[in-house]
Design brief:
With 358 residues, this protein is of the alpha+beta class. It is built from ten helices and 16 strands.
Length: 358
């Protein structure tokens, strides 16, 4: 299924799914405590052809009211409300709700379509409760939706996708992996390598899709801001249920997003009586691209290696990229402390090491 498809739909065999998730939570060893009796139950409908597409909205016969609405925050929110909804469901009230979600500058790029439930399913797919794609959100405006999921829950979830659409997590896509800080805190990369997470999978492995897990974590983060502590978690694998660290990382992704890695440099001169091994500690709190470059003295044949935090596991050895330069290019994937080990061989003199970390 295309990566842009982000659907929530009514629960199928809800009681069995909830029982399975609760049982899995008890056996997962996770430190977070999951609710035993969630107040809402939602799943997904990921059949081909159900993605939100701009042409569907352009062709729909729905009559709209709304447009660019200025909320009390002074921000402009693009909201259109279907005439099929009661007059009490106004563009102004929904613009106010959306403007008060935890957000950054991505808010100005959103267009929200608030519609009746049957219209949601016409635009998003059979049994769908909402969908998102490329700055457009469709959500129901009718109080409680199917299986007790509220309109507000759906809007929060879909806005979580909108946040991810405008965040970075190089070398991965944040819409599929989640933004950088949360994805690192939630160990998305190690989970993917162990086949415990499936980025972009809107079908069979939906419950282990970190992009969907992120949207639910965003929902909980925003609900917590308002003192809502029910913390329902019925559609995503219990292993992704956020602890305090993950919740704080998610909030940081919204308010202080990652934009680029950092570069640190080190220098040392090898002399006749110097120790032959130089250990350089690297702090790597975030997952992503890592590049080590070492500039060696003339006639230097030094070995340069990236070593695990245990100082014994060699992750990768540097290769020559020039007459006096060696380089390591790899990916940080769950390692939070690493070492660069430089072993002097051949010519003496100054060695310069630079590290570009996520």
């Amino acid at each position: 299924m295309a990566p842009s498809r982000r659907l929530i739909a009514s629960l199928l065999a809800g009681a069995l799914l909830l029982a399975a998730l609760v049982a899995a939570a008890r056996g997962s060893g996770a430190s977070a405590v999951l609710p035993v009796q969630p107040l809402s139950a939602r799943s997904i409908d990921a059949q081909p052809g159900t993605a939100l597409r701009s042409d569907r909205i352009a062709r729909t016969a729905i009559e709209w009211r709304g447009g660019a609405i200025t909320a009390s925050t002074g921000e402009v929110v693009n909201v259109f409300v279907s005439d099929a909804l009661p007059v009490e469901s106004t563009p102004e009230s929904w613009a106010e709700f959306i403007a008060k979600l935890t957000h950054g500058p991505e808010l100005s790029r959103l267009t929200a379509y608030i519609v009746a439930l049957d219209e949601v399913q016409d635009l998003c797919g059979a049994r769908a409760l909402g969908c998102y794609s490329r700055d457009q959100m469709v959500a129901p405006g009718e109080g409680a939706a199917i299986d007790a999921s509220t309109s507000e829950e759906v809007v929060r979830h879909e806005y979580g996708h909108h946040v991810a659409e405008h965040r970075l997590n190089a070398p991965w896509r944040a819409i599929d992996w989640g933004p950088k800080h949360w994805a690192s805190a939630a160990a998305v990369c190690p989970r993917v390598s162990r086949r415990e997470a499936f980025p972009g999978d809107e079908g069979q492995n939906y419950s282990q899709n970190p992009g969907e897990a992120w949207a639910e974590v965003y929902r909980l983060t925003d609900e917590r801001k308002l003192g809502i502590t029910t913390a329902t978690w019925p559609i995503i694998a219990p292993a992704f249920f956020p602890d305090e660290v993950a919740l704080q990382a998610a909030e940081r992704d919204v308010l202080q997003p990652w934009t680029a890695g950092r570069v640190v440099a080190f220098r040392r001169t090898f002399a006749k009586k110097s120790p032959k091994v130089w250990w350089i500690p690297l702090s790597t709190p975030l997952d992503g691209d890592l590049r080590i470059t070492a500039a060696l003295p003339g006639a230097g044949l030094h070995e340069v290696a990236l070593v695990g935090g245990d100082r014994s596991t060699v992750i990768r050895r540097a290769q020559w990229v020039g007459q006096r330069s060696k380089q390591i290019t790899t990916t940080v994937c769950g390692q939070r402390s690493l070492f660069v080990r430089v072993t002097q061989s051949g010519g003496l003199g100054r060695v310069r090491v630079s590290a570009s970390t996520p």
